[in-house]
Design goal:
single chain, alpha/beta, about 15% strand, globular
Length: about 250
């Protein structure tokens, strides 16, 4: 296995992603050919589960990295996502060193971790003889920073051996810090900029969710590398809304 996203981040390059929340292989097949660097398969805030994940991951037709967000920092959920082909794990709600270490251990085979053996589709059903030997080095571990506790423990979290990058969840972070539904409040922008600077100082690639070209460029200028810029559902919503608006129609 060769993880293209991990290499881009290590080189200091910007990697743009798109979130997948719809159970449609056609959507994945199409989006994987458009120029994104990674696809984010979200099983935390969508109906997707591991049974749906396997055909969705198999529909990837591009040279881009499939990253799965499990529903929780749970060894079983992470193991199942890896076995069906995830090359990166975006682990939610990592607030301290113990939770960061648990995420790494769930991803890594022994002796570094506790991942059980049964790679299934990840190893091309056993035909890829190199998978097991390369999985620990190639699989990307990204922790989500989305609470005030995580901000306080930031340096200790990203210093955990095996954490490759972090991604800020603007909405949950804002909610945790008293700005419910205001992820881009001026005070939150200060927190986001501060986290980007602290990540740069620690030498750990920073990730975030961005909305629109202007905010994406702002995040790039701040030093963010792993940026989710779209989502399947929201791309459809935006395109349909713009089309109907141009024709004098709108949602009722």
């Amino acid at each position: 296995m060769r993880n293209q996203l991990k290499r881009k981040l290590q080189k200091g390059e910007v990697a743009l992603g798109c979130a997948i929340s719809l159970n449609s292989t056609a959507v994945v097949e199409l989006l994987s050919q458009l120029g994104f660097d990674w696809l984010w398969f979200d099983t935390e805030h969508s109906p997707l589960n591991v049974e749906m994940l396997e055909p969705l991951l198999a529909a990837n037709r591009g040279d881009l990295t499939p990253v799965v967000r499990p529903a929780w920092n749970d060894m079983v959920l992470i193991k199942k996502a890896l076995d069906v082909g995830a090359q990166g794990l975006l682990v939610p709600w990592v607030n301290n060193v113990e939770q960061a270490e648990a995420a790494v251990q769930a991803v890594k085979y022994p002796p570094r971790g506790l991942r059980g053996f049964g790679p299934r589709r990840a190893s091309n059903y056993g035909l890829d003889k190199e998978y097991v030997a390369t999985a620990n080095d190639e699989t990307l571990v990204v922790v989500q920073i989305e609470t005030a506790e995580a901000v306080e423990n930031f340096e200790k979290i990203v210093a955990v051996d095996g954490v490759d990058a972090y991604l800020i969840g603007p909405n949950d972070l804002a909610n945790s810090m008293g700005y419910l539904g205001q992820p881009y409040h001026r005070e939150m922008e200060k927190v986001i900029a501060d986290l980007a600077a602290r990540g740069k100082k620690a030498g750990v690639p920073a990730g975030i969710i961005a909305s629109g070209p202007e905010q994406t460029q702002q995040r790039i200028d701040q030093g963010f590398q792993m940026i989710n810029i779209a989502g399947d559902l929201f791309l459809m919503l935006e395109a349909a809304t713009d089309l109907l608006k141009a024709l004098g129609r709108g949602a009722k």
